[in-house]
């Protein structure tokens, strides 16, 4: 069989004699297009963990959820030679540190060496599953993630142009309000990136990569981007009490291929899966929002 078992991770359960069988499990296939970016890792893992939690929420199952990960690229591959760890090591860190679903999960990782890794696995930014340990600001610094050189060719120039205008403002207000700046990038390990963001007071970044990681960490974020003008869509929102309202929701990276106000995510207060807008990580609409972010930090 064209399948090599690499490891099984047990989250919230002690069933070390079991593996997740790909024929009987939620299968996540990582290809050369989805193995390296935090955005795609978040998208694919979140779907599985949200499914696991929702089965518990709706009393469909009380057993651990089985997830089989098919890794189709070289297990030693790095996106860039200077990166601190392989793509597989990054994935493993995510798995070990994501919040455990209510009934637990059995996650088996398999290498599929003869797979056609260029065959793209679909993904979308419509789901968020969090890390177990959430944002814990210390009032000392903010984080910045500058545009990565291997980001989308259709967006990189516009994003860099925006970054050249916005980053000086971040530096200006950080200095004015007494915050240090810590820069992060994919050359750091996933652990270093996560822990640096977790203790930051705010995250400023380009529209990609850790803009999406920020949602898993729970840290507020503002992202510069390639677009000249942002659009908003009026969306009917319904909360867990059945109360309905209409809100103008920013059209940004969250909700592509899905209504922007229906982002599937974990509700910490009620310990259930909900579909609600994500209003904590936003695209920059105007430059005044940078100063407002720093003022908001001071008031906390």
Give structural notes.
By secondary structure, this protein is an alpha/beta fold. The protein has 2 domains: 4-118, no CATH class; 141-299, Rossmann fold (3-Layer(aba) Sandwich), CATH 3.40.50. It is built from 6 helices and 14 strands. Strands 7-6-8-9-14 form a 5-stranded parallel β-sheet, with helices on both faces. Helix 3 (156-177) runs parallel beside helix 6 (288-299). The longest helix has 22 residues, at 156-177. The N and C termini lie far apart (56 Å). 36% of the residues are buried. The mean pLDDT is 89.
Q: Major sheet: size, sense and barrel closure? A: 5 strands, parallel
Shape: globular
CATH architecture of the largest domain: 3-Layer(aba) Sandwich
Radius of gyration: 19 Å
Mean pLDDT: 89
Strand content: 15-25%
The stretches of 5 or more residues where confidence is low (pLDDT under 50) are none
Domains counted in the coordinates: how many?
A: 2
Measured distance between first and last alpha carbons = 56 Å
What is the N-to-C succession of helices and strands? EEHEHEEEHEHEHEEEEEEH
Number of strands: 14
List the helices and strands and how they pair.
Layout: E1 4-11, E2 26-30, H1 38-57, E3 65-71, H2 87-97, E4 105-111, E5 127-128, E6 141-145, H3 156-177, E7 180-183, H4 190-198, E8 203-206, H5 210-217, E9 221-224, E10 232-238, E11 244-250, E12 263-267, E13 272-276, E14 281-283, H6 288-299
Parallel strand pairs: 2-3, 3-4, 5-12, 6-7, 6-8, 8-9, 9-14
Antiparallel strand pairs: 1-4, 10-11, 12-13
Helix pairs in contact: 3-6
Provide a compact summary of the structure.
The chain has 300 residues and is α/β, with parallel strands linked by helices.
């Amino acid at each position: 069989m064209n399948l090599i078992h690499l490891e099984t991770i047990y989250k919230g359960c002690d069933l070390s004699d079991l593996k997740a069988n790909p024929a009987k499990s939620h299968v996540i296939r990582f290809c050369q297009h989805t193995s390296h970016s935090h955005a795609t890792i978040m998208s694919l893992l979140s779907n599985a963990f949200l499914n696991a939690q929702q089965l518990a929420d709706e009393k469909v199952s009380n057993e651990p959820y089985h997830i089989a990960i098919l890794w189709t690229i070289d297990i030693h591959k790095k996106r860039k030679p200077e990166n601190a760890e392989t793509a597989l090591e990054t994935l493993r860190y995510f798995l070990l540190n994501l919040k455990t679903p209510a009934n637990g999960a059995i996650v088996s990782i398999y290498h599929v060496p003869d797979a056609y890794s260029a065959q793209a696995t679909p993904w979308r930014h419509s789901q968020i599953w969090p890390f177990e340990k959430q944002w814990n600001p210390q009032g000392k610094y903010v984080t910045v993630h500058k545009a990565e050189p291997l980001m989308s060719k259709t967006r990189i120039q516009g994003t860099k142009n925006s970054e050249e205008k916005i980053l000086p403002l971040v530096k200006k207000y950080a200095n004015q309000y007494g915050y240090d700046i810590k820069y992060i990038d994919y050359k750091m390990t996933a652990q270093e990136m996560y822990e640096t963001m977790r203790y930051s007071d705010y995250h400023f970044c380009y529209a990609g990569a850790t803009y999406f990681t920020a949602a898993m960490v729970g840290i507020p974020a503002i992202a510069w981007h390639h677009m000249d003008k942002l659009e908003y869509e009026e969306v009917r929102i319904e909360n867990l009490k059945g109360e309905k309202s209409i809100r103008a929701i920013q059209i940004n990276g969250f909700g592509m291929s899905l209504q922007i106000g229906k982002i599937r995510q974990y509700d910490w207060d009620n310990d259930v899966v909900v579909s609600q807008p994500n209003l904590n990580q936003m695209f920059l609409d105007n430059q005044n929002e940078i100063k407002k972010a720093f003022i908001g930090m001071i008031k906390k």
